[in-house]
Specification:
By secondary structure, the chain is α+β, with helices and mostly antiparallel strands. The chain is built from four helices and six strands, in the order H-H-H-E-E-H-E-E-E-E. It has one domain: Nuclear Transport Factor 2, Chain: A (Roll), CATH 3.10.450. About 30% of the residues lie in helices and about 35% in strands. The chain is globular, with a radius of gyration of 19 Å.
Length: about 180
């Protein structure tokens, strides 16, 4: 290789690595991420309003366990306490993001247990929601994540929480 090409190639490689780190910072979990890292990446993606990044961390057939509606005016459903997790976030996320200027989720990992291809991650999640009118809501609740090891790494197979219903007024998204 010609010496004049080495420096530009090294600079290009450094630039590519830096871009990959910035792209991954918003939500994506590293390829070999441990279960707690996947939980952190999922919550970072929701905070960044990147539903596609968040749902990419879900296992096929993942389940949401809903004990009560998280937001006033939203019913928990009549089909029992479980629903498809991907569908849950793809329905709730756009509505939540439409009525807020900020939705921040910060999980504090309390415990992680790995047993073969299964893992559980307990987290205390603090949320901050700023409505379009400026009203701020804060909540804190426990979430339990069940993760399964797939060919693509750890993926979230289920989430359950003890969240209560908040008073965030959920309405139809504004028309554009």
């Amino acid at each position: 290789m010609e010496c004049g090409l080495v420096k530009p190639i090294i600079v290009a490689m450094m630039f590519t690595v830096a871009l990959a780190q910035v792209a991954g910072a918003a939500g994506a979990a590293p390829a070999k991420a441990e279960p707690a890292e996947v939980v952190q990446a999922f919550n970072r993606a929701l905070t960044a309003r990147k539903l596609q990044d968040a749902t990419a961390l879900l296992a096929a057939g993942s389940v949401q366990f809903t004990l009560r509606a998280a937001h006033a005016g939203v019913t928990a459903g009549q089909g029992g306490i479980t629903s498809d997790l991907r569908t849950h976030w793809n329905q709730i996320g756009p509505v939540l993001f439409a009525v807020t200027t900020t939705y921040r989720r910060v999980p504090k990992i309390l415990d992680t247990r790995v047993d073969g291809d299964l893992a559980t991650v307990w987290a205390q999640v603090a949320t901050e929601t700023v409505e379009r009118g400026g009203k701020t809501n804060q909540a804190s609740f426990s979430e339990l994540y069940l993760l399964v090891k797939t060919a693509d790494g750890w993926r979230i197979g289920g989430i359950a929480d003890n969240r209560g219903t908040d008073n965030l007024a959920v309405s139809d998204p504004p028309s554009q």
